[in-house]
Amino acid sequence: MKYKRVFGLVLDSVGTGAAPDAEKFDDVGSDTLGHIGEHFAGKLQIPNLQKMGISNLRETPIEGVPAVETPIGYYGKMRETSAGKDSMDGHWEMMGLPVKHALNTFPNGFPKEILDKISAFSGRKIIGNCPESGTKIIAELGEQQMKTGDLIVYTSGDSVIQIAAHEDIIPLDELYKICEYTRTLVNGPEYTVGRIIARPYVGPDKDHFTRTANRHDFTLEPTGKTDIDYLQEAGVHTIGIGKINDIFSGHGIDEGYHNESNMDGMDHVDHVMAEDFTGFCFINLVDFDAMYGHRRNPEGFGQALMDFDKRLGTVLDQMKPDDLLLITADHGNDPGFKGSDHTREQVPLLAYSPSMTTSGSLGTRSPFADFGATVLENFDVTGNGVGESFLSELK
């Protein structure tokens, strides 16, 4: 069957167990969903994800979320092939463009030549320059930044340069211009970085600093055509919700919505579902990752999953017979694991339409590009041949 509308919903960082190559990333033993279930000790309530098969796709069900005898749709897992475990890698691979070569990371801080150029362009000094949790480094250096007007520059285990500043000290427009300039410094060939992230925060002191929703990702331009490009070129209407537009640097997106939060993102989903259109809506909900995964907060992560699940119920009720919903993730970020970085995990794959008459397993798909290949086949669009569609398996 072909569907009029396809909604691809990415639960950012909601992994479902260590990938076979997790050892390369020092992530053996990671399991985002499994450890959240353990933390809640049987009290994690996600009935809509449960009936879609969120535990059926696992070897061991999530604690408190047993597998169901007959899911309402199809379930499986996806396994990444990209060289990294960042959001850019995951989303690009979903859309038929695996990242084959590792991008630069900076476990010992950034080269002086890059920092000097940022400082000269901005007229501001640099503080930080180390891998660190965003909330921690802002708590440590935020008051200094407010007094001096310096830029807090830091990284993580991923290929990112993050620049934090208090919104009252450095206006957003200025911070964004600094990040845009920084983007030009690391597009290769010497240094190639996946994302430059503006990290504005507010608050009077270190005990009350809060990062705001004015975060903005300046992503490496896609190195080739993605499935979204092929869809757009074929006249298929494409919608991006959340950081989708940032991840693809605006390529292939007809209509974009910025999210203030997961719930704001789901408001956008409800709005788009009420519209009469034919096409593909690609959604990212980032709070799981930014608010709870990196902060190693299983309580908040689990509550965010339960809050999302309630909104998912509304989506399922609103779906039309010719709608298809695909739910997945881009990587893991296990709040029960060491460190504060993304974790190399397999990700869930859930598929549902009210028109489905059967259910079953989609197995383990690799690469993530099977996701995009399915969307392409649905709209009779030819891509670059990466990935294998599972559209024919949805009955």
UniProtKB/TrEMBL annotation:
User: Where in the cell is the protein located?
Assistant: Cytoplasm
The catalytic activity, as recorded, is: 2-deoxy-alpha-D-ribose 1-phosphate = 2-deoxy-D-ribose 5-phosphate; alpha-D-ribose 1-phosphate = D-ribose 5-phosphate
Q: Which GO terms describe its molecular function?
A: magnesium ion binding; manganese ion binding; phosphopentomutase activity
Q: Which cofactor does it need?
A: Mn(2+)
Q: What class of enzyme is it?
A: isomerase
Q: How is the cofactor bound?
A: Binds 2 manganese ions.
CDD domains reported for this sequence: PPM
Annotated binding of Mn(2+) 1, by residue: D12, D330, H331
According to the entry, every stretch annotated as the Metalloenzyme domain falls at 4-380
Please give the biological process terms from Gene Ontology that the record holds. 2-deoxyribose 1-phosphate catabolic process; 5-phosphoribose 1-diphosphate biosynthetic process; metabolic compound salvage; nucleotide metabolic process
Look up keyword Manganese and say if it applies.
yes
Q: Keyword annotations for this protein? A: Cytoplasm, Isomerase, Manganese, Metal-binding
> SUPFAM superfamilies in the record, alphabetically?
Alkaline phosphatase-like (SSF53649), DeoB insert domain-like (SSF143856)
Annotated family: Belongs to the phosphopentomutase family.
Q: So what does this one do?
A: Isomerase that catalyzes the conversion of deoxy-ribose 1-phosphate (dRib-1-P) and ribose 1-phosphate (Rib-1-P) to deoxy-ribose 5-phosphate (dRib-5-P) and ribose 5-phosphate (Rib-5-P), respectively.
**Name this protein carries in UniProt:** Phosphopentomutase
Q: What is the lineage of its organism?
A: Bacteria, Bacillati, Bacillota, Bacilli, Lactobacillales
Q: Which gene encodes it?
A: deoB
